[in-house]
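Box S1 | Example of a co-folding query
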Amino acid sequence: MDFYIDLKNIGTEELKHIDLDRVNVSCNPPDFEPQRQYYFMAKCRQIVKLESERLGRPLYACSVTFGCQMNARDSEKLSGILKKVGFLETGSEDADFVIYNTCTVRDNANQRVFGRLGVLNGYKKKNPGMKVALCGCMMQEDLVIQKLRKSYPFVDLIFGTHNLYKFAELLYRCYAEKGMIVDIWEDTDKIVEDLPVERKYPFKSGVNIMFGCNNFCSYCIVPYVRGRERSRSPEEILREVKNLAADGVKEVMLLGQNVNSYGKQQGEESMTFPELLKEVEKVEGIERIRFMTSHPKDLSDELIQVMKESKKICRHLHLPLQSGSTAILEKMNRRYTKESYLALAEKIRREIPDISLTTDIIVGFPGETAQDAEDTIDVIKRVQFDNAFTFVYSKRTGTPAAAMEQVPDTLVRENFDKILACVQETARDRVKRFEGKTLPVLVEELNEQDSSLVTGRLSNNTVVHFPGDASLIGQIVDVTLEKCEGFYYIGSKA
Ligand code: SAH
Ligand code: SF4
Ligand code: F3S
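Box S1 (continued) | Returned holo structure for S-adenosyl-L-homocysteine
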C-alpha cells in the first residue's frame, strides 16, 4: 500500500505536482480543502481512463464562458481540473463533457444559454455518454433552476458561484450517480486556494483579489448571485502573482467587482488596494498591471498617486459612469453625482495626462428621459472616453429597479442611438492622439482575419494590429502607430 499517496499528509505546495494516479482513493475522502478536491480528481481520473479505454479514444471536454473577466478566470479553474483528470480540451460543443459558465447580468446573456442548450440536447442524443453541466451566475437564480428542472431534464450537473471550488467532487458525482445533480449555495465566506488552473494565455492572467459585491446598485443582479464582498489575503494574492511571474506571465489583471474597496471588510489591519498594487509592482518579471473594476465612489487620491508613480500599472482606468444624470444616478444607488464624476475624471487627467478612461453606460434605466440622456452625452463629451460599453437597461428579477416604472422601448432606442453616436465620435478623436508615436505593445495573438498580422495592446488597452508572426506572441515590442482606425491602430514594428 505504500505505493499510494495519502492526501491527508500532503501540503498545499506539493499538491500541485502530485501524481494523481498514485493517490489512495480506497480510503474516505479528506474532510479539508483543497486536499479533498484532489482526492476527487484522482477518482475522476480513473473514470475518464476507463471510459476512454471502453471507447478506444480520448475523452473531450468543452467549456464555454459567458460574461465578465471574473467568469473567464473561473473557467480557467474549471479547465485546470478537466485537464488534470484526463480530458482533452476542445472548442467543439459536440464533446463528451460540456460546461457552460453562465452570466445573468442582462437578460440576453441568459437567453443565449437557453438557446444553446437545445443544440446540446441534439449532440447528447447521438452520444449518450455525454454530460452537460451548467454553473455560474445564472444558476444562483431560483427561477432558472425551476425552469431547468422542468424543461431541460437532460442537464446532468448544476452548481453555482459559491461552490465552484468543489467542481472535482461534483464532476465525480456526475459520473457516479444518476439523474440531475443540483448543488447551489446561498452564499459563502469560504475561499479555497491552490486548485489547478489552466490559463488561456501563457503570458497574461487574471488574479482574483476579491469576490462578491456589497454595493447593490438598484439595477444590478451581481450582489445577489455573487454574494457579499470577500477579499483574498494579500499573502495569497502575492504568492499567486509570484508563481505566475515564475511561469512566464508578464501581465496580471487584478479582478474584483469593486477593487477600490479591497480589504475594507477585514478592517484597519488589512492592506488597501493602492498598498496591494505597490506590492504587486515589486514582483520581478511582472511588467504590466491592470485591474477591473473601479467604482467611482471609492476611488481614492492614494490610488491616483500610486498609479502616477508606477512604472508597471497600465495607463488605463475603467470607470463605469452608468448615467450622467444625477437624478438617475441617485435612483441607481451609485452614490456619486454628475458633478463629482466630472471632478474625479478631471483630477485623474490632471495627475496622469496620458491615461485612457473607458466606461460603461446603461440606457433606459427606469425614469430616464431625453433630458437625462443629454446629461450622459454631456459627460461623454467632457470626459472624452477612449471607449464606452453602452448597454440597454435589462430588468433583473429581484432588483429594486425591476419594480420601478419602465421606459417605453421607443424612447430607449432614441436615447441609445444618440448616446452611441456620441461615444463613437468622441472615441475616434480621442484614440487618435498617439498617431505617429512609437509605443510598446504586448502581442497577444495572430490577427483573426489576416494571419500576416499580429494583434496586441498598448498600455492604455487600445488594440494594435501590425505585421508579424507567432514568434512575437507574449512579447512586448515597440510599434509605430501609423493609422488610427476608430477604436484601434494599424502599425509597424519600430
Ligand atoms: N462592478 C462593475 C460592473 C459589473 S457588471 C461596476 O460596478 O462597474 C458590468 C456592467 O454591466 C455594468 O457596469 C453595467 O453597465 C452593466 N449592467 C449591470 N446590470 C445591468 C442591467 N440590469 N442592465 C443593463 N446593463 C447592466
Ligand atoms: Fe453591480 Fe454595482 Fe456591484 Fe458593479 S458595483 S457589480 S454594478 S452592484
Ligand atoms: Fe455576468 Fe456574473 Fe460577471 S452576472 S458580468 S458573469 S459576475
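Residues 409-431 form the longest helix (23 residues). Residues 124 and 210 are 37 Å apart (CA to CA).
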